[in-house]
């Protein structure tokens, strides 16, 4: 993986409404960094800057040593695996949805991705397995199953950087815990950025960054944060 660095980043959606107010942090290469903070703090905005929906109005976002503005769109796309809060699946087979980022993916690769995302047993249990249509009558994927498909989809891509933007925030806490546990294997060796609403879901992160009102208020591992409070 490569480190993702925010260096004194400023950004606002309008001229008089700065959302990120000089934000600096580094998600170290190969580590799991969690970004937590209350609603409206600017967490999704951070994700949008990493995806380059927008460029900062001040400071810089870097991937490795490179300013993100100098990274080609193609290279950025290859570097990032994103799991959003609400995964929208194609009206196609589950296998197609998992293999989508890699059109030449073999059935073996698709099944291995399903295994890593811990949804393989569920899919194999369906009468048509990976050939089951997502919109098929009678098949309704739960929120957790959809997110596991989304995780399998990022595995296929084998990206150096994984970005989870509130990927489990809408799920019940038991499902959330299961998915985050299965993520550890998927995330291993990658730079993993987990944006979360609740600190309790990311206590195992190497570093937790607490954002409030567009500023970093605390950072450290869970034990460090407890010590300060
Ligand atoms: P979080 O993800 O922490 O809830 P966001 O990054 O979504 O926070 O939002 C930070 C602030 O920016 C909020 O005040 C929000 O209303 C505002 N905001 C987010 N998206 C837009 C947008 N597209 N246009 C204008 N304001 C926005
Ligand atoms: P999420 O965290 O799921 O992205 P947000 O509340 O940040 O949810 O944004 C949902 C959508 O609404 C986004 O497309 C964002 O651009 C837009 N949005 C959010 N806040 C505002 C705002 N204050 N003004 C205009 N658009 C906004």
UniProtKB/TrEMBL annotation:
<feature type="domain" description="ABC transporter">
    <location>
        <begin position="4"/>
        <end position="229"/>
    </location>
</feature>
<protein>
    <submittedName>
        <fullName>ABC transporter ATP-binding protein/permease</fullName>
    </submittedName>
</protein>
């Amino acid at each position: 993986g490569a480190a993702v660095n925010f260096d004194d980043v400023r950004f606002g959606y309008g001229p008089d409404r700065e959302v990120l107010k000089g934000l600096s942090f580094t998600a170290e290469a190969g580590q799991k960094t969690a970004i937590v903070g209350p609603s409206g703090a600017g967490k999704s905005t951070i994700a949008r800057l990493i995806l380059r929906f927008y460029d900062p109005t001040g400071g810089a976002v870097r991937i490795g040593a490179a300013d993100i503005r100098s990274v080609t769109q193609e290279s950025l796309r290859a570097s990032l695996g994103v799991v959003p809060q609400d995964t929208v699946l194609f009206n196609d087979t589950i296998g197609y949805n998992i293999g989508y980022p890699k059109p030449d993916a073999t059935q073996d690769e698709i099944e291995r991705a399903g295994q890593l995302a811990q949804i393989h047993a569920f899919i194999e249990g369906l009468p048509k397995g990976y050939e089951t249509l997502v919109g098929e009558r009678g098949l309704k994927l739960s929120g957790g199953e959809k997110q596991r498909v989304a995780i399998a989809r990022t595995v296929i891509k084998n990206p150096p950087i994984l970005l989870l933007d509130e990927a489990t925030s809408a799920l019940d806490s038991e499902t959330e815990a299961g998915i985050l546990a299965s993520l550890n294997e998927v995330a291993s060796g990658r730079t993993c950025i987990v944006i979360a609403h609740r600190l309790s879901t990311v206590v195992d992160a190497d570093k937790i960054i607490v954002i409030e009102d567009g500023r970093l208020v605390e950072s450290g591992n869970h034990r460090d944060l407890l010590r300060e409070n």
